[in-house]
UniProtKB/TrEMBL annotation:
Superkingdom of the source species: Bacteria
Residue stretches spanning the membrane: 36-57, 63-84, 104-123, 158-177, 198-218, 230-253, 274-295, 315-335, 342-362, 374-395
Signal sequence interval, chain numbering: none
PANTHER family for the chain: PTHR43044, QUINOL:CYTOCHROME C OXIDOREDUCTASE QUINONE-BINDING SUBUNIT 2
Keywords: Membrane, Transmembrane, Transmembrane helix
Protein's name according to its UniProt entry: Quinol:cytochrome c oxidoreductase quinone-binding subunit 2
């Protein structure tokens, strides 16, 4: 760890535990095949290069498509960060065997900072509140409502907030991940207590930053609309998609034999319970937001839903009801379904698709107000960014054990029944 401290902030972005990594036992490791991470990374970069052609043709469409894809990747990391912290706080024993992948996924925050740069160039196209004429009383486009929100909705303060969010998220990811990986070669009994301590002060900061980030990235696309429950809605979707991704990855690793006998049916059952629970939780929050706005019947609130219940967008609204709640609820309800790796792994893929549709449904009616429109950039930006994140994620986990070795609860997690 001395080298890490000497190198400072830039060093740990490359390899936080390079001095100890070489000493780790070669158990529970991915095969030494560069294609595991290079192929998805190459596909992602290729799709992003193709997306640049779309940027040259229709810049505004590119920025909206890119924002949806980038937010999808962000929610994966945020959901994984919550997964790791809540398990440390509750001292959950069953989760130790399936904790390393979400720990590695939170390491993508520095990458997401870099991938956010194109959005900075599209702020004027994405966010109506960045137009200066809206705040000039002498301008015919003066908007008194936005003028009243100008203290919060302005570009300098927006950038300061984004920097603060990523500082907090990256700091939490760094501390939790490096402590876990260090434990592979250093069975220090104080490490679990350190992880709980970080999670204890990190959880309140996580809740506040995620809520405000949801307002900044998505809700402010339509700056006249507001919902005090939107932050919880955003969090529910984040944990929902992260659970699906984690479960799918473990199902693949078990099927390939990498973690055969390590991650077993009881682990998939517990992951499936969480997937089932957050299917219902997302539906509860989504209905609560809709019901309260419908009941209040305030024009500045109901207009947001009106845009999503007409001009073809009502089709996606129905897709979300059935695909985000009804079908996953019914499929994951049986006891046997949650213990079947192939089934819960397949549902994890479905979770990713339906979560992207959810983000698309939130953002795109701002751009296409007259009718629902799908553009090829929506797919290339999403899969391009996702490919980059997945490639770097697999690169990270290929450098360390897939199981937190020397964790005091690992034996109990492996013996879960």
């Amino acid at each position: 760890m001395a080298e890490v401290k000497a190198n400072g902030f830039p060093g740990w972005l490359l390899d936080p535990l390079r001095p100890t990594r070489e000493k780790a036992e070669p158990r529970y490791r991915l095969p030494e095949d560069v294609r595991i991470w290079a192929v998805p990374l190459a596909i992602g970069v290729g799709l992003l290069i193709v997306s640049l052609v779309g940027w040259a043709i229709d810049a505004r469409q590119f920025y909206f498509s890119y924002l949806v894809g980038w937010t999808f990747c962000l929610t994966l990391a945020l959901g994984s960060l919550f997964f790791v912290m809540i398990q440390h706080l509750t001292r959950a024993q069953w989760v130790v065997a399936v904790r390393r992948l979400p720990e590695a996924l939170v390491w993508t925050f520095p990458v997401l900072i870099v991938l956010f740069i194109p959005i900075l160039f599209g702020l004027h196209d994405l966010y109506h509140w960045t137009h200066h004429e809206l705040y000039d009383p002498s301008s015919p486009e003066y908007d008194p409502i936005l003028a009243g929100k100008h203290a919060y909705l302005n570009v300098p303060f927006f950038l300061v907030r984004i920097a603060f969010y990523f500082f907090i998220w990256t700091l939490l990811a760094y501390k939790l991940y490096t402590l876990s990986v260090r434990q592979d070669v250093d069975p220090d009994p104080s490490i679990p207590a350190q992880q709980r301590k970080v999670s204890a002060w990190g959880m309140p900061l996580y809740g506040v930053t995620v809520a405000f980030a949801s307002y900044d990235f998505l809700m402010s696309l339509d700056p006249h609309w507001y919902s005090t429950i939107f932050g919880v809605y955003f969090f529910a979707g984040s944990f929902f998609v992260a659970l699906g991704f984690i479960t799918t990855c473990y199902a693949i690793l078990v099927r390939r034999g990498t973690l055969q006998g390590i991650v077993r049916a009881p682990h998939f059952q517990d992951l499936g319970k969480l997937m089932f629970g957050f299917t219902a939780f997302w539906a509860y929050i989504a209905f609560s937001q809709y019901m309260l706005i419908w009941y209040g019947n305030l024009p500045e609130e109901t207009l947001w839903y009106r845009h999503r219940l007409e001009h073809g967008w009502e089709v996606l609204s129905q897709v979300l009801i059935w695909g985000h709640f009804v079908l996953p609820f019914l499929i994951l309800l049986p006891w046997a379904a949650k213990r079947t790796p192939v089934l819960v792994g397949t549902m994890g893929i479905w979770f990713a698709i339906i979560h992207w549709i959810d983000l698309f449904w939130v953002a795109m009616p701002v751009l296409h107000t007259e009718h629902m429109t799908f553009h090829w950039l929506d797919v290339t930006c999403w899969l391009g960014l996702f490919g980059v994140v997945v490639g770097l994620f697999f690169y990270r986990i290929s450098r360390h054990s897939l199981v937190p070795q020397n964790d005091p609860y690992l034996a109990r997690s492996l013996a879960l029944h």
